[in-house]
Design goal:
Elements (H helix, E strand, L loop, with lengths): L3 E10 L40 H13 L3 E2 L2 E2 L1 E5 L9 E5 L3 E6 L2 E10 L3 E3 L4 E3 L6 E7 L6 H18 L9 E9 L5 E6 L2 H20 L7 E6 L4 E7 L9 E2 L6 E2 L2 H9 L5 H12 L3 H8 L2 H13 L4 H18 L11 H12 L5 H12 L16 H14 L1 H8 L5 H12 L6 H13 L4
Parallel strand pairs: 12-13
Antiparallel strand pairs: 1-10, 1-11, 2-6, 3-16, 4-5, 4-15, 6-7, 7-10, 8-9, 11-12, 13-14
Helix pairs in contact: 2-3, 5-6, 5-7, 6-8, 7-8, 8-10, 11-13, 11-14, 12-13, 13-14
Length: 455
């Protein structure tokens, strides 16, 4: 495949109570449209911006520190002009770079900006809701250092993990939008606008790379344009010719003063930064002897990392087994529900009891999984923990005899030397025992009976 070049522009809503340039609440979900407004955030005549929201700037600075970026001594706001129904002023205020030259997963962070979110425009019915207008955003611009959709996904996952640790940006659905710039060697750069999920980024980039590759293979020109990603269809569609910075007619905002970056405040924030995911991974591997892959998954969410470390330090469970279970069984069920561990309704004490029984061999894999599912779905009952593993040979022999009698072909295949057939028979026995049979005892019984030719 032709050399792929990918860069990202990430727009994330900063965690604040108020908007960027006024005292209106930054809450815009689940409220009546066009009610959280003032003359400033709706750009009414005479509605001048107040000084910037200090918490928004602080949260951007924390993020810049986490990304290893260098701060500019000062910055000011520009007016970025474009027309759209959700932008009543016909321009968006965006700062000059506040920090630059950072790095994450070998991807260079070109710059971080502070800007205001526009309102919301519903294309299907033409309605505009300006409650979101003025909510503070951080814009993170990377250099084009990614070479595949998978690299982009891993970069975004680690960025999300950092945000989870420092609590600088909102994590609600729709609070982060991603613009992806992608090109292939020999072709023009294409921008894909307003992708709303990490899965969407991978899908959009995969489609666009294939589309551009096919054009170049057929000696056609890849147009330099802006495209829209349709999540429903999984394709990108042409929106307009790609804008340049000149098209936005940037000018300094005459209503706003310049701002100096407070070096003392930055150092205070730097000293108060928590241990970040990458450092936590290295420490978990060195201190607890777990695999790096397991550590990366666990450290990807602060609540999960704290859960693991609490038991690892107390030496309550085998660290390697606990890490494997968290990364495997638990994350599988959480991902299926699109659920973070910290947001789950699992009672930690109940989880501890489950792990005690499981790691001591009192619960089968199947029973453990059933109990975990019940916990995550809010259907757990304490009696479930009593469903311990069954090792009673008499009980299991009775089931084995029944299965062998019903599955004569599989029994015959095993006697003929097809060893895999015994796994099928063992699965049937486990099903009959509702997943509670001790698999080692089950296999021993089956091998003994089939070896003796017992039906």
């Amino acid at each position: 495949m032709d050399r792929v070049i990918i860069g990202l522009e990430i727009h994330a809503q900063l965690r604040t109570d108020a908007k960027l340039f006024c005292e209106c609440s930054a809450k815009y979900r689940d409220i009546e449209p066009n009610t959280n407004l003032c003359p400033t955030c709706t750009s009414q005549p005479g509605g001048k911006p107040m000084s910037i929201n200090g918490r928004a700037l602080e949260n951007l600075e924390k993020l810049a520190i986490a990304l290893g970026a260098k701060f500019e001594p000062s910055f000011y706001f520009m007016r970025k002009h474009y027309f759209y129904p959700d932008l009543p002023s016909n321009y968006q205020r965006t700062s000059t770079p506040i920090a630059s030259d950072g790095m994450l997963r070998n991807v260079r962070i070109r710059e971080l900006h502070l800007e205001e979110d526009p309102g919301r425009y519903e294309l299907r019915n033409g309605e505009v809701d300006l409650n979101r207008s003025g909510v503070p955003l951080v814009e993170i611009v990377t250099d084009p250092d990614m070479r595949s959709p998978e690299e982009a996904r891993l970069f975004l996952q680690e960025l999300q993990a950092i945000n989870d640790y420092i609590d600088s940006v909102r994590e609600e659905p729709g609070s982060m939008k991603i613009d992806a710039n992608v090109s292939l060697a020999g072709g023009n750069r294409v921008e894909i606008k307003n992708i709303n999920s990490f899965k969407g980024v991978v899908s959009a980039l995969t489609y666009e790379i294939t589309r551009q590759s096919n054009l170049l293979r057929n000696q056609k020109t890849v147009a330099m344009e802006t495209r829209h990603y349709s999540e429903k269809q999984g394709i990108t569609m042409s929106l307009r010719k790609k804008e340049t910075s000149e098209d936005y007619r940037y000018v300094p905002d005459p209503d706003m003063l310049g701002y100096d970056v407070d070096g003392q405040e930055v150092e205070k924030l730097r000293k108060g930064m928590p241990e970040l995911p990458a450092m936590k991974v290295k420490r978990f591997v060195a201190k607890f002897g777990i695999k790096e892959d397991d550590a990366e998954v666990i450290a990807g969410e602060r609540a999960l990392a704290d859960f693991f470390e609490g038991y690892a330090k107390a030496k309550k469970f085998d660290c390697v087994k606990l890490a494997q279970w968290l990364r495997g069984d638990l994350k599988k069920q959480l991902n299926y529900r699109n659920l973070a561990f910290g947001c789950s309704k699992v009672d930690r004490k109940t989880m501890e009891l489950l792990l005690e029984k499981y790691f001591s061999g009192k619960l089968t894999d199947r029973t453990m999984e059933q109990i975990l599912i019940a916990m995550l779905d809010g259907k757990f009952e304490s009696s479930m923990l009593g469903q311990e593993k069954i090792s009673d040979t008499g009980y299991l022999e009775e089931i084995a005899n029944k299965v062998i009698g019903q599955e004569t072909k599989a029994a015959g295949d095993y006697r003929k030397g097809e060893e895999k057939a015994i796994n099928f028979l063992a699965g049937k026995v486990m099903k009959e025992s509702r997943g509670r049979g001790d698999i080692r005892v089950v296999l021993e019984i089956l091998k003994k009976k089939l070896g003796m030719g017992t039906d």
